[in-house]
Design goal:
It is a single chain. This protein has about 120 residues and is mostly beta strands. It has a single domain (about 5-125), classed as Immunoglobulin-like. The chain is built from no helices and eight strands. The protein has strands at about 5, 10-15, 35-40, 50-55, 65-70, 80-90, 95-105, 115-125. A four-stranded antiparallel beta sheet has the order 1-2-3-6, with no helix packed on it. Strands 5-4-7-8 form a four-stranded antiparallel beta sheet, with no helix packed on it. A hairpin with a 3-residue loop joins strand 1 (about 5) and strand 2. The termini are close together. The model has no long low-confidence stretch (mean pLDDT about 90).
Length: about 120
């Protein structure tokens, strides 16, 4: 740690957990899961609105992905195109972490704004 991936629009960083409540950063079962933090940062100017951040992991022996969290910021209308998650759990046997970032353009005045998406896949083992 930390792990970082970038596109033309976004940088995603996975690092150690950083919740203010230090006890919530500690796994009660470290053989099963550990906690990490995530930062999603716009690196191509502030001409975008961050709509949604989703995280999924794989599971040994399964073709399905397991959702870790989905943060829908469309209803919040955040002022900055950034996102921080201080401590999300991740299964220790997961080999991939997939992060989906969805955004719109600030200057899109249409009723149904066109959404754009980047996908970041982190190899964990």
């Amino acid at each position: 740690m930390p792990l970082t991936k970038s596109s033309k629009q976004w940088k995603v960083q996975i690092a150690e957990p950083d919740n203010e409540d230090k006890q919530s950063n500690i796994s009660h079962n470290p053989d099963l899961y550990n906690f990490y933090s995530m930062d999603v940062t716009n690196i191509n100017g502030n001409n975008v609105e961050l709509v949604r951040v989703e995280a999924y992991r794989d599971h040994p022996g399964s073709t399905s992905e397991y959702e870790l969290f989905t943060i829908d910021r469309e209803s919040v209308k955040a002022t900055e195109p950034i996102f921080h998650h201080s401590n999300f759990p991740l299964y220790t046997k997961a080999t991939k972490l997939k992060v989906l970032v969805t955004w719109t353009l600030k200057n899109d005045k249409s009723i149904d704004k066109r959404k754009f998406r980047d996908q970041f896949t982190f190899e964990l083992q």
